[in-house]
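Try this one yourself first.
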């Protein structure tokens, strides 16, 4: 099973990062609005075992399984064993998961802009609770990419977005809530921006 290693950088300016990516000749992969549903049972046994089962719709429908690696984990990065597959009918997957005892546990949304730089997968993520940079790649290459993008001095985190959302809500005095989605007006505006950019050719079509 392939291992994914990554770090998130907090407090970044995504416009600055984008300009650096362009200046460095990075390969722009596209920008999408994502809707995600995470599945678990009533006891949240998957979460307790560090396992994520997720159904994502970003124009493609993708089923993802993430779990802690069986082997040694490199220091200083977040590591998962990950499998993904494209699906045609999410209803069939939901029925299958339901038969196994798994139901939607929570949902989340983001706008993700993707680039490739020196073998690293660079994600500029706009979340309902802030902007983040995620760098996925070889553990030795991640800090090199971070330095090139001017974010090496920013806080690096191995936490997932669910943990970061929980910490954000605690910090600003909001009640705990697992789901994190854009309000309807913000979502409508984001989708309109993406549609306009796609029509103008600023966003390449990726199947």
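Now uncover the answer:
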């Amino acid at each position: 099973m392939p291992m994914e290693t990554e770090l998130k950088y907090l407090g970044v300016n995504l416009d600055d990062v984008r300009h650096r990516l362009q200046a460095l000749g990075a390969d722009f992969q596209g920008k999408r609005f994502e809707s995600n549903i995470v599945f678990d049972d009533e006891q949240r046994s998957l979460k307790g075992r560090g396992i994520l089962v997720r159904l994502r719709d970003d124009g493609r429908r993708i089923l993802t399984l993430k779990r802690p690696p069986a082997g040694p984990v490199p220091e200083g990065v977040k590591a998962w064993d990950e499998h993904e597959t494209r699906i045609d009918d999410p209803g069939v997957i939901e029925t299958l998961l339901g038969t196994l005892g798994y139901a939607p546990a929570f949902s989340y949304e983001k706008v993700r802009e993707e680039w490739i730089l020196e073998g690293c997968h660079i994600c500029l993520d706009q979340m309902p609770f802030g902007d983040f940079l995620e760098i996925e790649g070889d553990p030795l290459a991640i800090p090199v990419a971070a330095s090139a993008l001017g974010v090496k001095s920013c806080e690096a985190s191995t936490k997932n977005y669910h943990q970061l959302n929980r910490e954000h809500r605690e910090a600003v005095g909001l009640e705990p809530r697992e789901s994190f989605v854009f309000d309807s007006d913000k979502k409508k505006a984001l989708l309109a921006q993406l549609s306009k950019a796609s029509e103008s050719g600023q966003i390449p079509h990726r199947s």
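Discussion: The chain has one domain: 3-199. The chain has a mean pLDDT of 94.
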